[in-house]
Amino acid sequence: MAQRDVLVAAADKECEGIRAQVAKENLARELVKERLVKEFWEPMAQPGAQIASLKYEYRSIPGVYNCQILDISIFRSPSY
Model pTM? Predict the structure, then answer.
């Protein structure tokens, strides 16, 4: 029974350490999120607006994927 208690205590201590680490990581993510919202989302005249006029450069992919990327770029082009 004493060995079981020792193992339970060790597991609980390890769990507390992991919980503290996860809480710290979550706090850091929340801080970054708040800063991003404050800097980019709140100043927008209409929050949630999408910028669709950016041109994306595609990397060179050999084979069948090149054809699919070409088809996608044609469909995305404003002249289509």
Answer: 0.48
pLDDT tens-digit readout, 20-72: 999 999 999 999 999 988 888 777 777 666 666 556 665 555 566 566 666 77
Rounded-to-integer distance, Cα 74 and Cα 66, Å: 12
Q: What string of DSSP letters covers 10-72?
A: HHHHHHHHHHHHHHHHHHHHHHHHHHHIIIIITT-SSTT--------PPPP--THHHHHHHHH
CA 42 – CA 48 distance, rounded (Å):
10
Query: What letter represents residue 8's amino acid?
Result: V
Any idea how long the chain is?
A: 80
Domain boundaries, the chain: 2-76
Give the whole-angstrom CA distance, residue 51 versus residue 60.
Answer: 25
